[in-house]
Amino acid sequence: MNILYFALNKICQNRFDFYICGIKLKSILFLDKAF
Q: Which of 1, 3, 15, 21 falls between 20 and 30 A from 30, CA-CA?
């Protein structure tokens, strides 16, 4: 998997805006599949 995915995942666990973090994670996974 992508290192950024795990990095953002840890950041999301420490934050309260899980919804925004979810969108960021999905966008990264989408870009991962695109490239």
A: 15
